[in-house]
Amino acid sequence: MVTTWCHGKNTKMPPMVTYSVGACLCCITFIRAVLSCRIIVSKIDLDNDGFVTEGELTAWIKKAQRRYVYDNVERQWQEFDVNQDGQISWEEYRNVTYGTYLDDPDPDNSFNYKQMMVRDERRFKMADKDGDFIATKDEFTAFLHPEEYDYMKDIVVLFLKVFYWKSSVITS
Ligand SMILES: [Ca+2]
Ligand SMILES: [Ca+2]
Predict the structure, then answer these.
(1) What is the DSSP secondary structure assignment for residue 55, as one 8-state letter?
(2) Which among 27, 49, 108, 156 could bridge 23 via Cys, Cβ 3.0 to 4.6 Å?
(3) Ligand at shortest distance from the CA of 140
(4) How far, in Å, from the CA of 70 to the mean position of ligand 2?
């Protein structure tokens, strides 16, 4: 038995549950969580006054959301721009996403790829502002993240209606 710090007091504990800093696992976890929170708060607290205002938190959430959207688009861009011409055509997207289904339109499983493809095509057309059926990076971002674009709001509303309808069917 060694004397260690646990839950704010010195406690006798078996050596195998203590760590080099002399605290038990649950306290180590708690200390790490507090330190992580302090690091995050220091990033959110723009004026460094030790407090996070609603405005600072809102700005941080928006920044984190933009970062997520940017990273997601960059990651998927590499996958879908098959011919590396700096644009993504509907054919490229469709072939990468639904190539297996297109090769075998009547698979044994009942998953409805046809319906998904029709839905994706409608969203792709809506995101494709100039109507050439080829997505620039901005158009592809609108396709992947319609919630970020005003001109895509109709598709977001439609998605939410379908989502809530399916949720109500499953729960009823
Ligand atoms: Ca391309
Ligand atoms: Ca286009």
Answers:
(1) H
(2) 27
(3) 2
(4) 19
